[in-house]
Design a protein that fits this description.
Elements lengths: L1 H10 L9 H13 L2 E7 L5 E11 L3 E6 L16 E8 L6 E12 L5 E4 L5 E3 L5 E2 L9 E7 L12 E7 L9 E5 L3 E7 H6 L9 E7 L8 E12 L4 E12 L8 E2 L6 H22 L8 E2 L1
Antiparallel strand pairs: 1-2, 1-4, 2-3, 3-6, 4-5, 5-6, 5-7, 8-17, 9-10, 9-13, 11-12, 12-15, 13-14, 14-15, 15-16
């Protein structure tokens, strides 16, 4: 039934250019691997709608997505042939994984939950450097500031009211907060359980906060982002680890200018991390007399 409906819809009115063989092959491989698509689109009210989707079918120059989870009307914001959706997905595993991003035109819904989209004109491939997680050396540890926002609806607006949650410098000996690792897409902190309990209102899984990373002379200005608390881990020693994922980035530290953080992370932060990795690699080679690379983890 679905196959027949899809062929009819696709055969009568696909108004877009034929995709290249490379793009078609990439989508076919994504279908084979059963990867999840991270989809972003603007809703009617202007809000950014995000959802994880399953790739259901790939044809000559179009493909079909269906949202994961329960949605009553997942594609209500779609205007056929006028709505662009940003799609992000990855192929492969571990160090061989490649990240892709593209803007696709929504052709039309073909069932209650399935949407037909045209292939993108181009497929952007993210560089592996932005997926590396590192632990900065002591002299490169950034200062970390976290604020809560009373009205989450104003998170990326001018009128948001910020409440100090964690204002500390992990790079000082007296600091009780330690930056465990960092990537262009998020950060993991270690802090006393008592401090976490005191700020439970703001530092709980699912909560969104504002975070600033100040690298001093390593960057032209501090990195100012919004982040979601993803998870926490408590140890028997009385400390906790808190994982935060970046969701928005303000390039000029302005409340009026925000950019969404996609699957590829914050590019300026990725460049800084790559610079640190290069420096650490050189130091390792000099110290060992061989070609030893710094330990890193690919997300």
């Amino acid at each position: 039934m679905f196959k027949r409906v899809y062929q009819v819809v696709f055969g009568h009115g696909a108004k877009h250019e034929m995709a290249t063989s490379h793009i078609r092959t990439t989508f076919q491989e994504a279908l084979r691997q059963g990867v999840t698509f991270d989809v972003r689109l603007k809703s009617v009210g202007g809000d950014l709608q995000k959802m994880d989707c399953t790739l259901c079918a790939v044809e000559n120059d179009a493909f079909v997505l269906a949202p994961q989870g329960t949605f009553s009307d997942p594609w209500h914001a779609v205007t056929p042939e006028k709505t662009l959706l940003d799609c992000y997905f990855s192929l492969g595993k571990a160090e061989n994984r490649k990240l892709y991003g593209c803007a696709c035109t929504a052709l039309e819904p073909i069932s209650a939950d399935r949407l037909l989209l045209g292939f993108p004109d181009r497929l952007e491939q993210g560089e592996r450097r932005i997926n590396v997680r590192i632990t900065p050396q002591y002299e490169h540890m950034p200062g970390v500031c976290i604020w809560g926002v009373k009205d989450i609806a104003t998170l990326h607006g001018k009128a948001m009211e910020r409440i100090p949650v964690l204002l500390t410098d992990p790079g000082t000996p007296e600091s009780k907060t330690l930056l465990c690792n960092l990537s262009s897409g998020g950060v993991r902190l270690r802090l006393p359980a008592q401090l976490l309990d005191e700020q439970r209102t703001w530092l709980r899984p699912g909560q969104e906060v504002l975070i600033q990373l100040d690298f001093g002379d390593l960057a032209q200005s501090p990195f100012f982002m919004s982040a979601r608390v993803n998870n926490e881990f408590r140890s028997s020693s009385g400390s906790c680890e808190l994982g935060l994922q970046f969701t928005g980035y303000s390039p000029h530290h302005s409340r009026a200018q925000w950019e969404p953080v996609d699957l590829f992370g914050v590019d300026d932060l990725a460049k800084l991390i790559q610079g640190l990795l290069t420096e650490y690699s050189m130091e390792n080679r000099i110290a060992s007399g061989g070609d030893i690379r710094p330990v890193s983890v690919v997300l």
